[in-house]
From TrEMBL:
Domain PPM-type phosphatase intervals: 5-234
InterPro entries: PP2C, PPM-type-like_dom_sf, PPM-type_phosphatase-like_dom
SUPFAM superfamilies noted in UniProt: PP2C-like (SSF81606)
Protein name: PPM-type phosphatase domain-containing protein
Domain of life: Bacteria
One GO molecular-function entry: protein serine/threonine phosphatase activity
Coiled coil, from the record: none
Length: 283
């Protein structure tokens, strides 16, 4: 069976007083969620979306792509509930970039401008496309790449997980193999550190020192936004507990809309049972 070894790091940066980024890393799920800047309760949106996605992924049946779609839909409904509970949260939203495996297959869900990269044999390739006004204008030829840095609306997000419109994520299967590494990161890293330096850092470090080095690079470049990065390396191995670690806003339970919104029995999670069934059938 295939799973992840992983490391995760989140930092508020040098200019912001709070951290609206959230991340989760586990043996079968990696994700980054970035509360949309300037919107109400960004840390509530990102932390709650990370919580919902990680929990739904552990208890839901189905192929990884369908499970991620279900989790994002649930997160949307969850944010709607959060605004009903507190109208001051009106407008909250978050990006989400997540990779989920079931021991055999891996799926990617992406919405917003957090990014996912695949590192294989020394080369790094981006596997997501930004859902931003800038990307739309680049695609249409209305904006030149050399003008992006000075474009006044470069931070405008075209798609996100929100309480308003149902989200429209990009969903696809990934062909991963042992030794591959995935890098998921918020724009607090990718806006300041170019792809060439990302690649050399992922190549030259182990997982823990790699995420630390990436955060330090973003801080050295100004650290003007929250910074979150996760590196997961695909490995073959026996079934292990799917529970992982939360970082950033997701590590603070006060940021959750409702910590009991998704019910799970951690003593015998359904997803672990399903993974066990797959393991037995493969044997």
């Amino acid at each position: 069976m295939l799973r992840f070894r992983y490391a995760a790091k989140s930092h508020p940066g040098l200019l912001r007083g709070n951290n609206e980024d959230a991340g989760y890393a586990g043996a079968y799920l990696l994700l980054v969620a970035d509360g949309v800047g300037g919107a109400a309760a960004g840390e509530i949106a990102s932390a709650s979306t990370a919580y919902v996605t990680s929990t739904v992924s552990m208890i839901s049946e189905g192929d990884p792509m369908a499970v991620l779609a279900q989790a994002i839909d649930f997160a949307h409904q969850h944010l709607r509930d959060g605004v009903r509970m507190d109208p001051l949260r009106d407008g909250m939203s978050t990006t989400l970039t997540a990779v989920l495996g079931d021991g055999e297959r891996f799926a990617l869900a992406h919405i917003g401008d957090s990014r996912g990269y695949l590192w294989r044999q020394g080369s790094l390739h981006r596997i997501t496309r930004d859902h931003t006004l800038v990307q739309m204008m680049l695609d249409s030829g209305q904006l030149r790449s050399e003008d992006v840095a000075t474009f006044p609306y470069r931070s405008v997000i075209a798609r996100s997980v929100t309480h308003e419109e149902p989200p429209e994520p990009d969903l696809c299967l990934l062909d991963l193999q042992p030794g591959d590494r995935l890098l998921l990161a918020s724009d607090g890293l990718t806006d300041l550190v170019d792809d060439e330096l990302l690649c050399s850092t992922v190549t030259d470090h182990d997982l823990e020192s790699g995420v630390q080095a990436l955060v330090e690079l973003a801080l050295a470049a100004g650290g003007r936004d929250n910074i979150t990065c996760i590196i997961g390396e695909v490995e073959a191995g026996d079934l292990i507990n799917p529970r992982g670690i939360m970082v950033g806003a997701a590590a603070d339970p006060h940021n959750l809309i409702d910590g009991a919104a998704v019910h799970i029995d951690h003593r015998a999670p359904q997803r672990t049972a399903r993974l066990q069934t797959l393991l037995e059938s493969a044997g």
